[in-house]
Specification:
Keywords: Signal. InterPro entries: PAR1. It comes from Nyssa sinensis. Residues 1-26 form the signal peptide. The chain is α+β, with helices and mostly antiparallel strands and 185 residues long. It folds into two domains: 26-79, no CATH class; 81-159, no CATH class. It has seven helices and two strands; from the N terminus they run H-E-E-H-H-H-H-H-H. It has helices spanning 2-25, 82-87, 105-112, 114-117, 121-133, 138-144, 146-158, and strands spanning 47-55, 61-71. The chain has a two-stranded antiparallel ribbon. The longest helix has 24 residues, at 2-25.
Length: 185
């Protein structure tokens, strides 16, 4: 009977310690991350972290990490692994991302590789949403690979509606709705 009571007490103490440690450590706050862990991280609130560079009056560069307004899909408290950064062809010290990277065949090959696409859900979610913002479906882009991927992106970019100059008059913008897409898992 004494061993059951001491085992129960030990379990309660371990549970209490776990809650105390979790409460004191909290989750990931972007503002607490350094330059080497900021890019591609997700805070405990589910917001993506972004690395910013400021140049001081002395000319010295200072890097800070801040919380962006961009939410990650189903991810919280995430610092991307170095294996995923390398497999996906990314740079940990990146100062932002651009859809232009999707036009680079070398980058797209790495992003669409099985080492990245199948193993790095945070990065795939990020670039999936970036591609959707450009009217591109990432799985289709990955299927196209190589020269076809570049042609597909160029076609999508060139098919956008271009507003006429104010003096030309007469042309009305096209109205359409796009449903949000979900990243593949």
């Amino acid at each position: 009977m004494a061993s059951y009571t001491s085992l129960k007490t030990l379990a309660i103490l371990c549970l209490a310690l776990a809650f105390c440690v979790q409460g004191s450590l909290g989750g990931i706050a972007c503002e607490n991350l350094n330059k080497d862990s900021c890019a591609f991280a997700v805070s405990s609130s589910g917001k993506r972290c972004v690395l910013e560079k400021k140049v001081r009056r002395s000319g010295e560069e200072a890097y800070t990490c801040r919380t962006s307004e961009i939410e990650a899909d189903k991810l919280k408290d995430w610092i991307e692994t170095n294996q995923c950064i390398e497999a996906c062809g990314l740079d940990r010290t990146a100062l932002g991302i651009s859809s232009d990277s999707l036009l680079e065949s070398h980058f797209t090959q790495k992003l669409c590789s099985s080492q990245c696409y199948d193993s790095c859900p945070n990065i795939i979610d990020l670039y999936f949403n970036l591609a959707v913002g450009e009217g591109v479906f990432l799985p289709k882009l990955c299927e196209a690979q190589g020269a076809n991927a570049r042609r597909e992106m160029a076609e999508i970019k060139s098919s956008g509606f271009v507003a006429p100059s104010p003096k030309s008059g007469g042309v009305q913008p096209v109205k359409y709705m796009v449903a949000p897409a979900m990243a593949p898992y």
